[in-house]
Specification:
Order of helices and strands: EEHHHHHHH
Number of domains: 1
Helix content: 55-70%
Strand content: under 5%
Number of strands: 2
Number of helices: 7
Largest sheet: 2 strands, antiparallel
Distance between the termini: 48 Å
Radius of gyration: 21 Å
Strand order of the largest sheet: 1-2
Shape: globular
Length: about 290
């Protein structure tokens, strides 16, 4: 069952199995463990049964291995779709920065854009197949929100958005290096523990927001611009890195086991959400360390 939260929604992650892509395919004749939308039907088996679904992209263990089928996802597909999605985010951000002044009207437009982006992300998270129009629409409206927010931060802390972009790139590169070198091993246990921490973090942030809104906690509560806010920001960035490692694992498994090419849009969607998460937290962290100058 996929999560309804677009941030937590990851292809192959289920309540029953954890992250399905983390499991090796069972041995021939092994028991059924899940549902595989891409597995080939083994000869002589019930056409509606699928005993090879530990990996969402596993192929028939009986018979000779077939060459990579046409239309399977490749790294080039992932890079291209991710570039398109991030480029759309950048386009929305640049237009918002260039055309919208720092004003209450712009803030209202930013909030509206964020809500539209959230709705589009939710719709995509419930769909069985990726919809490029939804993903690019999400990216554009998210870009408008980021553009207005970045301009606001830049008016208070000059250069903060640029530093946040550099920080996001550095953190993302470090996460990729740690994953490629297997310093971080993305297993089902790793995914479960990380998701529990991430969900608990979001729940605490929602409670904190309500306390601030009703005046119980002042100065942003846990999200203030002091040392406590900085610690919370660092934790949030680490959670963003956790999401990135799940994205990397999803992409690696999808390419290895021949996921359909359209799955590259979901990979781009997940990477974009993770990078936006990290950028927002990095922007806030830069502002905290910049002080009130």
């Amino acid at each position: 069952m996929r999560s309804s939260n677009p941030v937590f929604s990851r292809r192959g992650f289920s309540r029953d199995n954890g992250y399905a892509g983390f499991n090796a395919a069972p041995q021939a004749g092994g028991p059924a463990v899940g549902t595989n939308p891409y597995a080939q039907n083994p000869s002589g088996q019930n056409p509606y049964a699928n005993p090879y679904a530990a990996n969402p992209y596993a192929t028939d263990p009986y018979g000779p291995q077939a060459p990579a089928r046409a239309g399977a996802m490749t790294m080039d597909d992932v890079v291209t779709r991710t570039a398109m999605t991030l480029g759309t985010v950048a386009l929305g951000a640049v237009l918002a920065w260039a055309l919208l002044p720092v004003s209450s009207t712009s803030y209202g437009l930013a909030v509206g854009s964020a809500l539209v982006a959230f709705v589009l992300a939710m719709v995509q998270s419930f769909k069985r197949t990726p919809a490029p129009a939804l993903i690019l629409g999400y990216a554009f409206f998210e870009g408008i929100f980021l553009g207005v927010l970045s301009e606001m931060y830049n008016s208070q802390w000059s250069g903060a958005p640029f530093q946040a972009v550099l920080g996001t790139m550095a953190v993302s590169a470090a996460s990729l290096l740690a994953y490629k070198q297997r310093w971080i091993r993305v297993t089902a246990r790793y995914a479960r523990i990380g998701m529990i921490i991430a969900m608990a973090f979001l729940m605490v942030m929602v409670v904190n927001l309500l306390l601030v809104a009703f005046g119980v906690a002042g100065d942003g509560g846990l999200r203030d611009f002091g040392p406590l806010g900085a610690l919370v920001g660092v934790l949030a960035i680490l959670i963003g890195c956790f999401f990135l490692t799940l994205d990397f694992k999803q992409i690696e498994d999808g390419i290895t086991y021949g996921a359909p090419r359209q799955e590259s849009w979901l990979a781009a969607f997940g990477l974009t959400m993770s990078l936006v998460w990290i950028y927002l937290e990095m922007l806030r962290l830069v502002a905290i360390f910049s002080g009130n100058d």
